[in-house]
Amino acid sequence: MIIRPADKKKDATRVGDVLSRAFHDDPVVRWLLPSGRGMHRMFVTLTRHVHALGDLAIDGDRVVGAALWDPPGIRQPPLDALRSAPGFLAAMGRRVSYGQLLQTQFHRRRPERPHWYLAEIGTDPAAQGRGVGGALLGARLGHCDGEGLAAYLESSKETNIPFYEKHGFRVTGEIRLPKDGPMVWTMLREPVS
């Protein structure tokens, strides 16, 4: 398996494909998109216009996992926010307001100090249990450690918490999403020296 950086334009469809498969049963994605339709478009938009960096896990000629990250201090440029609007509207329709609620809730909880933000990470269900997620995490966590910076994420599945804890994250809080939304756990990983 190879972990390599994703090209925001060339690889966005591949990232959307694998994350759509990985998040097919995710509580937050199902809250945003109850029918599941629009999931691919949402992940492609997140890749192209919202998150700064992406990584792909490739096994042979298949993409088996992907992660989207934001380094410290990086915010979505205003032009990219405008460019993302049509993709989110097409993906979510009227529920685009749920996406805005989600982002508001998440931004309020992020650490004030500089940190790497893991926005999305997913493994194709057919490749789960083969170390794909750990390899994707390890690729960027090494950067965090080298820079002496923390990493932060929100876990939308309680069953994923032990996986993140195995990689040094600890639960720091809980977020109950509005409008009968699911619970989300905030997690922080201090740098390892």
Concise overview:
The protein is α+β, with helices and mostly antiparallel strands and 193 residues long. The protein has seven helices and seven strands. The chain has a seven-stranded mixed β-sheet, sandwiched between helices.
Provide a descriptive summary of the structure in words.
This is Ribosomal protein S18 acetylase RimI-like enzyme. It comes from Nonomuraea africana. The structure is a single chain. This protein has 193 residues and is an alpha+beta fold. It has a single domain, classed as Gcn5-related N-acetyltransferase (GNAT) (Aminopeptidase, 3-Layer(aba) Sandwich), CATH 3.40.630. Helix content is 41%, strand content 26%. The chain has a seven-stranded mixed beta sheet with strand order 1-2-3-4-5-7-6, with helices on both faces.
What attributes characterize this protein structure?
Trichothecene_AcTrans, seven-stranded mixed beta sheet, Ribosomal protein S18 acetylase RimI-like enzyme, 193 residues, Aminopeptidase, GNAT_dom, Acyl_CoA_acyltransferase, alpha+beta, 41% helix, 7 helices
